[in-house]
Design brief:
about 260 residues; mainly alpha; globular
Length: about 260
């Protein structure tokens, strides 16, 4: 039977698992909904009044790329050095999440300032998302930041795979057993990294390349289909078959049951 104290210690990890799944679903659904939204015109002031759409667009954009970076970094440290991985406490995880939150806040402030700098009669279609592309400085900064994050995720994961290949320990030691376990976990994340490569890194990289309009129209169709597949896949992974998400809900439920049992004694 799980004690109440141990359940309380597991609660932050359970909440983190739930938030991770929610962020992935939001980032996957976001592009699909906004790209199919019926367009209409708004002034910059009206767009700021509906700041929720503008804010959630930016937040999910960054979260969708930052979370694979954190996961890849965790896998890289796990297979690279056991001593470093043992230092990855809850406090370190909170610091990393806090760093991501600060970058999101900074990006949002820059976004709002950029939208405020637009003329009052500037027409913005759809749910204000075109405002991000109307300000060249912010658009370039935002896309560059996401591109750097996506390549960092790929670099960390590639480093983890190279470490697994180069450090194959056949001895029956505790470290060798742990290395095998971390290798299995890392390989299971291959699908996530492939999704990051094809649905985030490549479209972001292509956005910096000057392409003819006819070719870009075809590429846009491919990216749109990729977004739909990305949304469907992440919703499936993090709602139906994600063990960590189920574990998070179960841990919170067990904590509540343990609390009720403790009060009745």
């Amino acid at each position: 039977m799980v004690s109440f104290s141990s359940a309380c210690k597991q609660t932050p990890y359970a909440i983190a698992n739930i938030l991770t799944g929610f962020a992935f679903i939001c980032s996957a659904v976001r592009r699909f909904i906004l790209s199919t939204y019926t367009p209409f015109s708004l002034t910059p002031l009206q767009c700021l009044i509906q700041a929720f759409y503008l804010s959630i667009y930016v937040c999910c954009d960054i979260l969708g790329v930052a979370i694979p970076v954190l996961i890849s970094f965790d896998r890289f440290i796990a297979v690279m050095s056991y001593r470093l991985y043992s230092l990855m406490t809850l406090r370190v995880a909170c610091c990393l999440l806090g760093l991501v939150t600060l970058t999101i806040i900074a990006d949002l402030i820059y976004c709002w300032i950029s939208v405020c700098s637009l003329p009052d009669d500037f027409a913005i279609p759809a749910t204000c998302t075109a405002a991000l592309y109307s300000v060249e400085e912010y658009d370039f900064f935002h896309r560059m930041y996401l591109t750097v994050l996506s390549y960092c995720a790929l670099a960390f994961y590639a480093g983890a795979l190279m470490t697994i290949v180069c450090r194959r320990d056949k001895e029956n030691s505790v470290r060798a057993a742990q290395m095998k376990r971390e290798a299995v976990i890392t390989r299971r994340l291959s699908y996530l990294i492939l999704l990051t490569l094809f649905f985030q890194t490549l479209p972001l990289t292509l956005s910096f390349v000057e392409i003819e309009m006819t070719t870009m129209a075809k590429i846009s169709i491919v990216i749109y289909v990729a977004d739909v597949l990305n949304m469907s896949t992440f919703v499936l992974i993090f709602s139906a078959i994600n063990p960590e998400l189920r574990k998070g809900f179960l841990q919170i439920c067990c904590r509540k049951r343990a609390s009720v049992a403790g009060q009745t004694k």
